[in-house]
Fold this protein.
Amino acid sequence: MTRTDMRQLLLDWLDDNYHFGEAATLIPSDDASFLDNGILDSLGFVALIVYLEDKFHITIDRKSLNRENFDSLNKILSFVLPRLGA
Amino acid sequence: MNGRDAPVFVPAPDVAARSQLADFMADVSRSTGRALDGPAFSRWAATDWRAFWRHFLAFAAPVVEGAPEPVCVGDDVEMARFFPGLRLSYTENLLRSAGPADDDALAVIAVDETGRRAEWTRRELRARVEATARSLAALGVKSGDRVAAIARNDDRAIVACLATTGLGATWSSIGPDQGPESVLARFAQLQPTLLFTVGSHPYQGATKPLAPRLRAVVQGLPSVRTLVALDGDVAALEGLALPTRTLADLEAQGAAQEPFAWPRVPFDHPLFVMFSSGTTGAPKCIVHGVGGTLLEHLKEQRLHSDFGTHDRLLFTTSCGWMMWNWQLSALASHTTVVAYDGSPTWPTPDALWRVVAETRTTVFGTSPAFLQYCRDLALVPREAHDLSHLRAVQSTGSVLADRFYDWVAENVGSLPLQSISGGTDVLGCFVLGNPLLPVWRGEAQCTSLGLDVRSLHGDGSTRAPGHGADDAVGELVCANPFPSRPVCFFNDPDGARFHAAYFGQNAGLWTHGDFVVLTRHGGARILGRSDGVMNIRGIRVGPAEIYAILQEFDEIRQVMALEQLAEGEIGGTRLVLLVVLKPGAVLDRPLTLRLKKELSHRASMVHVPAAIVAVDELPATHNGKLSERAARDAVNGREPANLVALKNPACLATLREHPELGGRFAPRAG
């Protein structure tokens, strides 16, 4: 999966579950903090990693669920893509 | 015997022997001259229920006046009236002292996610409530009035509520996260004279303002004569053309030295109005009485939960859920209420466990959704926090799966995880904990004492606790009168809606709307709703609210909202929407997102379906009435009970085989 495809998949997931067509508008940049901008809350992050695990048949160590790895589009892409072998 | 056949927790004999339930059982045995213990005691309480309540009133000794006889007039569950000769005050009973030490003990600890923490002794709380009551009376609030509140779960809501109910007025509250339509669908029916509100609330690190929504709410409540800002944020109420006060004003102006004489009201006097949204019409306004609420909560909290002066109860709840009222009543057992407001996972994923530790909470009330979150994150609270004060975890809101019992045992501590279940309709529990009994995975420990709780099966037979087979699923019914049965519905003068809601299905039995298995251990497994009301992630969702919003979509001809069992989802179920489109319309992604967005903005996130599926037709009876029950059975793998009543039964196969709906199965009703 390309970075562009994965980015779109994340936006679609945010739209399907939280922002219903407004995710791209609400995220000011790919480096913007999800927490600070109200894009996802803690429960949402857990839902996201459960979704990624199901979708790609991977296991994500819960200790890695922190701001450094998941708090923006770019951080998630950088964390997840290498685990897919992309 | 393998691990699955053994209880996951067994109470220590000395702890059990010191429990209030053990005291009460000994007291009853002495009085009656009968050796009643274990199952015999439960059976006695359900069959000789008048004697049970007579004994319990004497044991709990709430402040009452008048005659305790008759215990109950009538034997009909729907019409029976308890303690018609008694008068009492809910507020007086919650604020009374158990002795000088109790006056200086903490009554309320209020904590929120921002770190605000306030503590109030019983003496201080009593002074605040009395002062507020004086000011409310001066504003014209009187017995029989309805007072509404959009409130946060904190000390201010507790003060406002107890001052209101102390005057004989009726309290009704919701949390600050509801949309204006949802608020008005509830409060407008009550015609409240006064509205308490907050200007904002914190959630997940952000401050969420209410001002834009308050304008629509206040305009839709023409009966309101006064607004009171609980948090002092009068700026949020500017321009609403009504007298505006703050709670702090009311407390300051009503301060006095002499104690307030709380008026005592009849047993069935309206105390709380709770709301339940059903499959049709506006949300039901369920009126709960002063005596029934107090007596039931005293019973559940002292006998089943063993609450006392050394306990601190933190139940994760908003002011819109009946667990808020249940938590509040713990004051009557001289237990400290730890009111937590905000996100349970902010500013750290384990924030709520930190609060449990720092407040030295002894009983932590939560939900399967929160336990699932902790499990998904692999949290180990017992390693990260000092939970040495914690002696029990209670869970309610949705089905508590077996895996959570093991998770708590391994990651929280060796303590009972008590599944408790009942709900808004009875402002209490039908199944819950017991300090004398072991805990079995997936089971509530017992049925509620004094209530003849049974499972009703397809052949009309009923099974009592301890007499069922562990796979016999039935409807949860109650076969005898109980004090916490609602007094009535508001605006239901002939009782027709009330009758239809609980007694229309099975004459003479309170039919609660849950599937249950009463186990051989004497416990119970709740398996989810049996009626059209849905329970999504622990929150009740009425399809009628969804239909009211979606009827404005030009593309939709018919719609049906269903709860479908879904392994792995929080609470074990998900919300599914079936839509029949008008000619030419297509359920594409833009329409799907538009439907979800409208539901999230005008109702709540819980009303947003996990799946929206377009179908050619919905099951309907020969006279054209849509059959949610048949559709629900089909999407949950059950055989619909009455196919001949449908004019289009073939459409059920389409639902069963639909790729987005198939492959999920429900327990089969026995």
